[in-house]
Amino acid sequence: MAGFRQLHERFGQEDACSDLLVIGGGINGAGIAADASGRGLSVVLVDGDDWGHATSSASTKLIHGGLRYLEQWQFRMVRESLQERRILMEAAPHIVEPLEFHLVHSPEMRPFWMIWLGMKLYDTLAGSSALPASSALRFNHENSALKPQYTKGFSYFDCRVDDARLVLENVKQAQSRGACVASRTKCTGLSALPDGTGWKAELTCQQSGQTSSIKTKCVINATGPWASYIDDMAGLNAEHKARLRLVKGSHIVVPALYEGDQAYLLQLRDGRIIFTIPYQDNFTMIGTTDEEIGGDPGDARISAAEVTYLCEAVSEYFTNAPVASDVVWQFAGVRPLEQSGDGSENASQVSRDYRLSLASTPAPLLSVYGGKLTSYRALAEAAMDTLGDVFPQMTESWTSTASLPGAPKGEGTLVLLKESLQAAFPVIEPGVISRWLANYGAQAVKVMDYASKGSNGLLEAGPLVGPGLYKAELDFLINEEWAETAEDVLWRRSKLGLHWTDTDVLALTEYLRQ
């Protein structure tokens, strides 16, 4: 509600007009809003739900070049993604961390020499990198989770990230640069101004039902799977619209399948690959699937068949294989992939690259199609460069050397912050404070702003609202991070939901309602 009120007060007046309205608060929309705000434009960013509630919080949570895309000859996309990997490691070291992958060689699949060449090409495209180069591996079955027939493979490095938190970092970046941001605010109407110099947008608060009409010079459609809906609302001509294929990717989380912090890349008999990734200390995440869907993307859910598929895929390689009853969390996201040709290619073969389509009639509107989590910053920069003629007053691009809000200011900063927070909250378990720093980075210190001072003069984080969640942290999430529901708190602001019971969730829901 607060974001909607601010939006209405700032731009809901007859004589007010923003430069840019970004519709869609996933990773691409948040990245574009941040980039545009830093170039001196007045920006409004809205999403009909929570920030990153759909595809952008349902990825495989990797910052990577995409080794498998080399087979599809998508060298430009892989090279750009590897360059972005380097940039994001510097921009957000608190949430982007290196991860070693073991690619298991199966003699029935791709030949060893072919994978070796792919690895060398991957290293070459990465250029100068802070990550180790790839190397051949021999698996020691005395301490390996793999079945005995798998004796060799490769080691290479990419990065992992909390995707939902990466979205939030970019929303915060946009707001810090002056953007007006409003979650749970849906665009319910879009019409060109009579002279074609901009748009009138009707925005509706999803909680109160209140509406606000604002004017803007340009609209960016960054709604991902819902892009066609906004294109149609704007009345775009057919030549400016993309043909989208909606492909569902599903993941499961199970208790840890093996010791060690390495991930595995497994080649499957159907030509696909899946990952097993250490997750939240005590779990393994497995994914992803590729299943084309129709209907409302918001209705996409993982199916029992997909759970079985992922479990059986792992059982081909691991001695300790999961079954459906082991699953503690499951999620599905919908990738909006642009169809090329007659659309006969398998969903796994459709390009993950992005395309930007700028329409000047009936008024300036830029539609974003496709894209990967890893390349969101490059996409945002390209989007704003595309609008150079619309906004000649724009300043130069800036995000390639900028840190995200939670990034520590120097080496050792997070260690010092941990010591400070532990001293400020001596009764809080060290694991909780470690989680604060892993989630919020340098901004974890803001939790102190929501603490109270006890009779002994020390800060108190308040009562436990649920396992591992103190009132001070919850108030921080509500006031600083737009959290409004239990799902926001437990799955997108944190992953505490992995440890909570249904009773705990109901208690939090009631607390938030009050």
TrEMBL record:
Any single GO BP term: glycerol-3-phosphate catabolic process
MF terms in GO: glycerol-3-phosphate dehydrogenase (quinone) activity
Record EC number: 1.1.5.3
Cofactor: FAD
Gene Ontology CC annotations of this record: glycerol-3-phosphate dehydrogenase (FAD) complex
Pfam family of the protein (one): DAO
NCBIfam families named in the record: PRK12266.1 (NF008899), PRK13369.1 (NF009906)
Protein name: Glycerol-3-phosphate dehydrogenase
Organism name: Pseudohongiella nitratireducens
Gene that encodes the chain: glpD
